[in-house]
Amino acid sequence: LNQLKPHSFRFSRRSLATPPSPIRKLAPLSLARKNDGITILPLNIGQPDIPAPKEFYVGMERALSEVRRLKFVPYEQSEGFRTLCTIWAMYLNQYIERKELNLSADNVIITMGASEAITFTLMVCCDPGDEVIVLDPTYANYAGFAATSAINLIPLPTSPENNFAFPSREVIKSSLSGKTKAILLCSPNNPTGRVSTLEELLVLYDLSVEQGLLLILDETYREIVFDNLKAFSSLDLLAKHTALKGEVFAPENEPLVIIDSVSKRYNLCGVRIGCIATRNKEIVRLLRSQVSARLAAPTLEQSAIAYMLHELMKDGSHENYINEVVYTFNRRRDTLIKSLNYELRDFLPEPIKPPNGAFYLSFELPVSGEAFAEYMLRTFTHNQKTVFVAPGAGFYFSSTLGEKMIRLAYVLNEDKLCEASQMLGLGLKEFSR
Ligand SMILES: Cc1ncc(COP(=O)(O)O)c(C=O)c1O
To answer: Which residue minimizes the CA distance to atom 4 of ligand 1?
Structure first.
């Protein structure tokens, strides 16, 4: 490309249409500020800081010894290390009530995080120009995944006034066109933290069956739920739908595809391991060809995760670990909301309400979320510190919605969250002057 004249090359429409991640877009400003000696409190990115399970490190050491012995690092199987597929299926099966619907290793494909899992799933179900329904706001990077495959996302607005509840079946149905191929959503939701209700999910499931669509459910935050909610997987929707409708339904044709990841629940974002799980045999067959073209996911990391999950599932350690994670995020959520409701009291139309899951808060300010986020990074300091927040607009696909929203990820300890709230209050006062 260096030899081409700069203006003569026409880059692909899809790459030109791929937006930068709104979560990382302001990172250069943050870096510049850091270089000026300012400490940044990063509430912009969902990178949790809780210790990962100790079993992961033991697994990694074992994997390392094995490749030391071999003296080279081999590729893994394209669809994933078989032992890991088996263990991941066993882990998911705890969410399935009707045991005859349990998954096996053949229903699981290991990917490089949920990101790759979603990209492959979209590529398997859509041609360029096809449409996928999403609920607005939703995980911002879905825009990037869709754009690289020239897929159009059709956003259906949800609103904070209504606690981001799903639109009615009629509204969802009226948004379908001859090009609609799938519905894609995450629950617990990023950026709102909302947990979808069983009734809402059943409507989507039923609609997907009726209309011949795929239902892609991103369960990256599955277990991070509060207020006595029980962690839930949509893998159980098939049985619930069957019970409700009295239909005999062939599991191997079902519309559901689950996206999973170790990034958030186990505090292992950089490990880059996730999976696709589905009973639909045709999807698995097609995915196997897709993943074979990228050869394999990382060998050592898969081996370490297999060991970790195996050990955690032995004697209740999994539950203990997750309980600790949930407890920590629950406390942080409560502390952050209390502190924000106090520090931002002059700017919030009404107090922020606690969402039921994940580790995010999205709320509206009386000013532009993006301009405020930039102001905090470019100009604001308090005791040589400032706060990095994510502008909410990037999580909205309908252009004007979310302009005044910001999203905070409560991935710092409670003292830092209080300090950040105080700075946000001071920053808003200065910015609104
Ligand atoms: C809803 C959702 N899905 C997927 C991802 C990406 O996960 P991974 O790190 O497994 O690629 C994220 C990351 O923030 C997310 O919030």
So the answer is: 114
